[in-house]
């Protein structure tokens, strides 16, 4: 971290009889604000009387760093971090911009609250202990704000604070500072080209170490930033949360939750998303329907049923009439949908704007239920751009979480797609609505990777819409697997889809680096369903896509960003890694992972260079299973590993040093040729 000049110390306000340390007062103000934030974590929107301190519920989950390695044969790879603290391990690294990426529900905002908790409470393991000031700002609140001091004055200091923006500037420029900006993708200025946001960020990035959370990485920051991503909850993380939050109060309930997750693969997969998992854990006793859930749509419908049930009980207790029954939300669904299909997503609205769409009574009911949240923001006139004193405070409204936004948007999409005047033109794969959107693809900005659940929910809500969306996904994205996953949302078609999934496992299933992340994500979910149904999976090929094995999480990390799990019915696992030189530790980890898949009888490596020997400890389970480990360079018969000795052998006996050296030279020659061919003329 760049050296900062020393703060001059004590200052005196006119009329004060004592000297006041402005820096200490500033820290007192922001720590008090942070305490209000991190001590009031509401895990389920409608349970207002149960709030938690962030450290009591926070679980790190999976976090990865995009690193640039010279010894891996790859220009960059995602590496798993041991702990969330490592995001700030090196505060003096070349890049002072750290972007933490994660899809909806992955826990980005909760992570930011844990970071400020660590700073406020001087948690020894935290690298923020040595930082004098930490600033946490939510970008969703900063419409029109042009300076960090203005933002701090508006949203972190009490209204009667006598600290001026000049005071704040002096403090920040005289000490070590880390700035945390939560929700880049939620910034409310829809016209980002106005320069307001870029001016604000440029100033902050030049002066401070910064952590930014976002659903996607802005292209302009991709090359000069450290990139991290949240990968969700594996079984270890889920058990940690259950033991931390539930078992301490009710061990029987904790075991019940673990049992349900073990038996229900759909729910188990859904609960890799921390938000879904937390809602399930705290609602498991609300309904006997949770163990039998077969689709994501059923899960969320049940969550919403619990939300409305709690609200109805509450208003009956206090004898207040209500109009919201869970179905009376058409204007809200239209608003949610139209916000998501814009090129620059709109996920918050002015309070008066949203009331004009859904009505005053329904609005207040949805706020009381916790589905809609009010958030204080600012609107600045020209004078206000120079000083926070001229700022007009306003209230903007957003959904409790982005996944609730997608749920309501999906209702509108399902109704729209099912209409006869909305059809799919298979010639160009675009929707045609024979009204104001004629010959326009309304969904062109609705990315199925970023907004997966909009499509899955919409398919589960309406079978006619599902058929059109199935065709749309297949023709527009080539996403047959994702389309199949969407069709699976229709409970009445489950048997038909399961037959297709069973058939899928009879031939090799490929995870190629050229395939989309969407395809990999959907394919893995379908394979998990196949394994849970005890359908045989003949072979999986990981093609130029291997990153590393995470034995603690029982997964293989793919370069596409998806993790490949243990599959109970997988028979053959094949790695086709062109120009890849496997290390001994990598092969040992792969062998150990294969041992976790009880039916793997063949482990194969193709187009790559393998280590001369493998330590036999990692091979013992495969040896007892009478499995094969093969190495095929595609230029002659493959070598087979002697699992008892860890040596490669062929028909003539063990591979000699001279023969292995021939393989090394062949590999290096082919790698050079491949590099030359890939270079532009």
TrEMBL record:
Q: Which residues form a coiled coil?
A: none
Residues forming the NACHT domain are 96-215
> What species does this protein belong to?
Holothuria leucospilota
Q: Which SUPFAM superfamilies match?
A: P-loop containing nucleoside triphosphate hydrolases
Family matches, as InterPro entries? NACHT_NTPase (IPR007111), P-loop_NTPase (IPR027417)
Query: What is the protein name stated in its UniProt record?
Result: NACHT, LRR and PYD domains-containing protein 10
Q: Which Pfam families match?
A: NACHT
**PANTHER family per record:** NACHT DOMAIN-CONTAINING PROTEIN (PTHR46312), NUCLEOTIDE-BINDING OLIGOMERIZATION DOMAIN-CONTAINING PROTEIN 2-LIKE (PTHR46312:SF2)
């Amino acid at each position: 971290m760049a050296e900062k000049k020393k703060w001059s110390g004590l200052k005196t306000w006119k009329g004060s009889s004592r000297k006041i340390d402005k820096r200490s007062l500033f820290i007192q103000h922001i720590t008090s604000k942070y305490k209000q934030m991190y001590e009031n974590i509401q895990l389920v929107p409608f349970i207002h009387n149960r709030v938690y301190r962030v450290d009591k519920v926070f679980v790190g989950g999976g976090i990865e760093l995009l690193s640039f390695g010279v010894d891996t044969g790859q220009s960059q790879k995602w590496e798993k971090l041991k702990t969330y603290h490592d995001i700030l391990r090196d505060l003096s690294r070349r890049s002072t911009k750290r972007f933490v990426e994660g899809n909806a529900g992955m826990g980005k905002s909760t992570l930011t609250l844990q970071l400020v908790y660590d700073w406020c409470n001087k948690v020894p393991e935290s690298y923020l202990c040595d930082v004098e000031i930490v600033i946490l700002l939510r970008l969703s609140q900063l419409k029109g704000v042009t300076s960090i001091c203005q933002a701090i004055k508006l949203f972190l200091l009490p209204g009667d604070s006598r600290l001026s923006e000049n005071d704040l500037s002096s403090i920040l420029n005289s000490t070590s500072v880390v700035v945390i900006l939560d929700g880049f993708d939620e910034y409310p200025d829809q016209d980002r080209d106005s320069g307001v946001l870029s001016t604000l960020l440029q100033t902050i990035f030049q002066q401070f170490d910064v952590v930014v959370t976002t659903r996607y990485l802005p292209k302009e920051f991709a090359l000069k930033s450290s990139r991290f991503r949240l990968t969700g909850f594996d079984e270890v993380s889920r058990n940690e949360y259950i033991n931390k939050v539930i078992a301490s109060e009710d061990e029987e309930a904790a075991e019940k939750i673990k049992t349900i997750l073990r038996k229900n693969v759909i729910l188990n997969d859904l609960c890799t998303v921390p938000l879904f998992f937390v809602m399930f854990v705290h609602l498991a006793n609300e309904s006997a329907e949770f163990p039998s859930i077969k689709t994501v749509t059923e899960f969320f419908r049940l969550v919403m049923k619990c939300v409305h049930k709690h609200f109805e009980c509450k208003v009956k207790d206090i004898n207040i009439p209500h109009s919201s029954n869970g179905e009376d939300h058409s204007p809200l669904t239209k608003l949610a949908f139209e916000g998501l299909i814009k090129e620059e997503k709109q996920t918050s609205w002015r309070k008066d704007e949203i009331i004009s769409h859904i009505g005053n009574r329904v609005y207040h009911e949805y706020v009381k239920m916790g589905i809609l949240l009010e958030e204080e923001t600012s609107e600045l006139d020209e004078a206000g751009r120079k000083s926070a004193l001229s700022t007009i405070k306003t209230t903007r409204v957003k959904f409790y979480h982005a996944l609730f936004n997608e749920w309501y948007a999906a209702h509108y999409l399902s109704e729209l797609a099912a209409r006869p005047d909305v059809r799919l033109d298979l010639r160009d794969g675009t929707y045609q609505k024979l009204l104001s959107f004629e010959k326009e693809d309304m969904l062109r900005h609705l990315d199925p990777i970023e907004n997966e659940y909009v499509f899955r929910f919409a398919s589960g809500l309406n079978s006619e819409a599902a058929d059109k969306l199935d065709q749309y996904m297949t023709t527009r994205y080539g996403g047959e697997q994702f389309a199949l996953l969407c069709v699976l949302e229709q409970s009445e078609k489950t048997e038909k889809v399961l037959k297709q999934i069973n058939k899928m496992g009879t031939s090799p299933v490929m995870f190629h680096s050229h395939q989309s992340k969407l395809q990999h994500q959907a394919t893995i979910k379908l394979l998990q369903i196949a394994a849970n149904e005890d359908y045989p999976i003949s072979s999986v090929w990981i093609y130029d896509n291997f990153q590393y094995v995470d034995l603690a999480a029982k997964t293989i990390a793919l370069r596409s960003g998806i993790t490949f799990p243990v599959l109970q019915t997988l028979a053959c696992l094949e790695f086709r890694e062109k120009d890849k030189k496997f290390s001994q530790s990598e092969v040992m980890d792969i062998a150990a992972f294969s041992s976790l898949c009880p039916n793997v009888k063949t482990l194969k490596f193709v187009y790559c260079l393998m280590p001369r020997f493998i330590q036999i400890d990692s091979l013992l389970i495969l040896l007892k299973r009478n499995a094969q480990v093969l190495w095929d360079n595609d230029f002659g018969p493959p070598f087979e590993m002697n699992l008892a000795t860890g040596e490669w052998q062929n028909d003539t006996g063990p591979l000699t040093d001279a023969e292995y050296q021939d393989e090394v030279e062949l590999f290096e020659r082919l790698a050079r040729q491949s590099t030359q061919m890939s270079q532009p003329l």
